[in-house]
Amino acid sequence: TRIKYPLVRARLIRHWREARKTMTPVAAWKSIVQDTEKRRDWVSKRGRGGFVRVGWDE
User: Fold this and answer.
1) Is 36 helix (H, G, I), strand (E, B) or coil?
2) Are 8 and 57 in contact (CB under 8 A)?
3) Which residues of the chain have pLDDT under 70?
4) DSSP label at 1?
């Protein structure tokens, strides 16, 4: 099956969009992964769905 739309966890994309306002993509990802609270927030919801459709540019 071909992926028509990229899907990302809603909690992760929320953190990503917040970080991308002021940082480069690599710095934004680093800030999310290294922040214990943010990491725990989206990692704890694995396996429960919660995917949202995003654009290819994100």
Assistant:
1) helix
2) no
3) none
4) -
The alpha-helical segments, DSSP class H, found in 1-48 are 10-20, 25-34, 36-43
Non-local (6+) Cβ contacts of 55 within 8 A are: 6
| CA–CA distance, 35 with 55 (Å, rounded to integer) | 25
Query: Strand, coil or helix: what is 18?
Result: helix
pLDDT of the residue at 33: 92
Distance CA 25, CA 23 (A): 6
Query: Which pTM value belongs to this model?
Result: 0.80
Backbone φ and ψ of 5, nearest 5°: -135, 140
